[in-house]
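Input (Preprotein translocase SecA):
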Amino acid sequence: MRPDTPAEHVDHNAEAARLERTAGLYPEDAEHLLLQAAAHLELADDRPRASTLYDHLLSTPDSLENPLLVRALKAANLWEYGHEAEARAIIDGVRAASPRDPAPWVIVAEALESHDELEAAQETFTEGATLLLTDVTDPPYATHPLLFGRHRVRRMLGMPHDDWDTRADTLHKAPVSLDELHDPKRVWSLGSDNPAELQAEIARLQSELTTAREALSRPFPVAILHWPADELAELVAAYPSLGSEYPSHEEHLATIETSLRELAASGTGNLGIVPGTVPSYEAFAASELASPADALLLPQYATTLAARGRAVAWPPERGGACWCGSGRTYEGCHGGGA
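Output:
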């Protein structure tokens, strides 16, 4: 699916089939690819088939990077086509497992919210926030939906603001405040015959839609290829002509950081870094009927890895480890002076 393809023009069944075929070619990325395929099947309203994909993934839970995420998605999907009891049981299990990733918390809480279980949704959002954000001064980007969802449900329940609601207001960057976006009375304005009220509500809905699209319109990052030191040494030894691309490992790392900063300065968003390995690169070259010594193949390899979900977001979160693998914080390594 191209990033610029309108959602209403996508053949979701065909896209799901393509992703399933790709998962067969790249079993190490099957989890990421099959989750995308299941999402397309849900959009195509083929929810039983989506559940089949979730079950396929969960049949080998030890091989999954995030089995609780798969379980949460399965629960949300099951509830949508009538399997409420099973969905509730899975949701209870996800909550009891206390995942350290915010995504499962958000998915099960929103599933409860969408079925008018507002008290349970608020409790779930709060459990996730308590586990992941207690004593965290700068919430990571991935946790923002947890705070925003909690704010929304509490607003619908008429609960007073607390510290996390205030934090959510601070993190929200759209021109319309969260209090306005999450105001339960907004729905009444849609029935108004006052043009000014209708125009104001349209502006609020456009702002909310823009925020949602920003979160969902990232098929994969613009990614730069990163060779760890041992992999780069092996690559250049096997294909000496690539030495002109990579004079030294230190220069390679510096070039990555410089390129990413230039892209960010030009306004390019959703940047990432993909680690390469020689066996993977050689397999990719073979699939393209090309020689690994061809330098023109390198950016294509990076894009393919990013499309398979192998990219790590750049820049790292504040205080996070540097992308280069030095073990130091990003600020104390390649992020110094940024």
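The chain has a mean pLDDT of 86.
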